[in-house]
Amino acid sequence: MRTLILSSLLALGLAAAVSAQQAASPIVSDPTAQDAAISFGGPEPVRFVTATGDEHVIMAEIAATPEQQQRGLMWRDSIEPGTGMLFQYVPAEPASMWMRNTLVDLDILYVNEAGRIVKIIAYAQAESRRSLSSEATVSGVIELGAGQAIAMGLRPGDRVYHPFFPEEAAAELTEPDMDAAQEAPEEAQ
Questions:
Q1: 175-180 long-range CB contacts below 8 Å, 24 or more apart?
Q2: Is residue 182 within 8 Å of residue 157, measured between CB atoms?
């Protein structure tokens, strides 16, 4: 009987400890839910240099974890000019974005490991469920408010400077790679 009582007390104590631990560290069940509390890294500066030598800097929130990447810019009423979000993919992989629960149109820039823009989707439509593919292996995606990429004069082949894209990788970019990046289609959605 004494063993049974001690076992019951021990079980109740462990259950209370587990319950307290769960309350202290909430589990995100659906990062895309409007009420999910998702924190992003940054903001950090991201610098663009166009083929004509023009330079532009934005401040980007950082989406590096799976939860941050699933949430992205969902549920935002606006994206301030000069701001955006930078998604990091380690290792580099083909990426696909969609606009579900995104309340504003966006420009989506796909960036390869060398820090070169390989594809731009301008004016991706809010709330669209269409898959917007990079059609290439990328190590980053940058989302901006719609029209910002055009206003900055960004094109495929332009350089992106951020620690996600080491400068030494850009030096390894070959002429055929540059030709392919500059020929990549720009899509208006």
A1: 177/114, 177/116, 178/116
A2: yes
The DSSP code sequence of 10-53 is HHHHHHHHHHHHHHHS---S-TTSTT-----EEEEEEEEE-TT-
pLDDT in tens, 2-43: 454 444 444 444 444 444 444 444 455 775 665 667 776 789
Which has more confidence, 27 or 65? 65
Average pLDDT rounded to a whole number, residues 60-65: 88
Q: Is 180 helix (H, G, I), strand (E, B) or coil?
A: helix
Question: What is the strand order of the sheet 159-161 is part of?
Answer: 159-161, 41-49, 55-63, 83-97, 132-145, 106-111, 117-124, 186-188
Which of the four pLDDT bands, split at 50, 70 and 90, describes residue 59? very high
Domains of the chain from N-terminus onward: 39-188 (2.60.120.1140)
